[in-house]
Amino acid sequence: MRNFLQLVCAPLRLGCLFGLYFFSMNSVHAQQQQNLPVFALVGYQAFALRVSDIDRSVRFYSDVFGAAPVRDAKRATYALGTSNQHFILSEAEGDEPLGFAWIGLGVRNFDRQSVIEALSQLGFSPIEAQEQRPLTRAMRFWSDEKWGQDALFFADAEGIVYRVMSTDDCGACAPAASAAGLFSAQGINHFTNFVANYERGNRLFFEGLGLGILAYQGPTSPTVSLGDGLQFLMYVGGTDNSSPSVPGRTDHVSLSVAEFDVEAIRTRLTSYGLAPSDGQRPPRALTHWVSLRQPNRGGVVGGTPEVYFSDPDGLAIQIQDAGYCGGGGYLGDQCD
């Protein structure tokens, strides 16, 4: 099949490179899936944000999502929709950086020892929680009881931290939204990570876990499908093969919302006090903006609108239609 594609593409040169790349990537994935460790990844379960002032952030997110969290002095947990998905606000301590503390991956029939064995098969080695640092934790796993008795974490080759969780974990089961917020969050759609080498970031999920491609946001920018046809993970960066000198970071999370209407959402954000912005990175605190993803990045002619806002610490949150999969069409819901 590959020889056939090369024969057909020969006179067309660049016009077929995209097709050859897609075929090659999926061939690799199909070969890898024949001998995979047991790791029944279902999708996203949760995420945690480190914030500078927990009370201020609770006021903000409670207003935005119309929800009351389960909380204590330094932490607050919000439900997302009616599933067990949730997110946690945690007040930063000491030299902890503000931003995404970890991304939670849901595993069916979670068994701690089985997950540890699977991580070991994938090339990860253990480290003590107090010893892990942004540039030393790559390809390591650890436990951290401050997040729960069975809290198990690993960092990928770029230093992005993931938590492996049971799909039954509801994060203390915070109540669903009960008040009128600016919009209703239905669940987690995707995360985008900024790294030194995007291919190295993708490798764990494509080759190690045997996940496939959901869409392309550019000829060499595949998104990792989490399996339900909507959730995905994206690594953005260069191709530096040396060890990272700067750890990767999660730039933003995207949440699915009901009744996605760009102008209505932006009007509500402005009325609440967020200022319109041009989308500079890193974003200023309490702003909102729209990015129009053009056809060269898999969007529609005229641009697929992607809506963002930043919280009191300048952390970016994207909100999209419930059918958004990072693909084509005005709503980004075309991922064939």
Approximately how much helix is present in the residues?
10-25%
Report the order of strands and helices.
Answer: HHEHEEEEHEEEEEHEEEEHEEEE
The low-confidence parts are 1-35
Quaternary structure of the protein: single chain
> What is the CATH class designation of the largest domain?
Alpha Beta
Shape: globular
CATH superfamily of the largest domain: 2,3-Dihydroxybiphenyl 1,2-Dioxygenase, domain 1
Share of residues in strands: 25-35%
CATH second-level architecture of the largest domain: Roll
CATH topology of the largest domain: 2,3-Dihydroxybiphenyl 1,2-Dioxygenase, domain 1
Task: Present the secondary structure layout.
Layout: H1 2-9, H2 17-32, E1 41-51, H3 54-65, E2 70-71, E3 75-79, E4 86-91, E5 99-107, H4 112-121, E6 125-126, E7 140-143, E8 152-155, E9 161-166, E10 185-195, H5 198-208, E11 213-216, E12 222-225, E13 232-237, E14 249-257, H6 262-272, E15 275-276, E16 287-293, E17 304-310, E18 316-321
Parallel strand pairs: 1-4, 5-9, 6-7, 10-13, 14-18, 15-16
Antiparallel strand pairs: 1-5, 2-3, 3-4, 7-8, 8-9, 10-14, 11-12, 12-13, 16-17, 17-18
List keywords for this structure.
336 residues, 2,3-Dihydroxybiphenyl 1,2-Dioxygenase, domain 1, 2 domains, alpha/beta, nine-stranded mixed beta sheet, globular, 18 strands
Describe the structure.
The chain has 336 residues and is of the alpha/beta class. The chain has 2 domains: 41-166, 2,3-Dihydroxybiphenyl 1,2-Dioxygenase, domain 1 (Roll); 185-321, 2,3-Dihydroxybiphenyl 1,2-Dioxygenase, domain 1 (Roll), CATH 3.10.180.10. It contains 6 helices and 18 strands. It has helices spanning 2-9, 17-32, 54-65, 112-121, 198-208, 262-272, and strands at 41-51, 70-71, 75-79, 86-91, 99-107, 125-126, 140-143, 152-155, 161-166, 185-195, 213-216, 222-225, 232-237, 249-257, 275-276, 287-293, 304-310, 316-321. The strands form 2 sheets. Strands 2-3-4-1-5-9-8-7-6 form a 9-stranded mixed beta sheet. It has a 9-stranded mixed beta sheet with strand order 11-12-13-10-14-18-17-16-15. A hairpin with a 6-residue loop joins strand 12 and strand 13. The longest helix has 16 residues, at 17-32. The model is unreliable at 1-35 (pLDDT under 50).
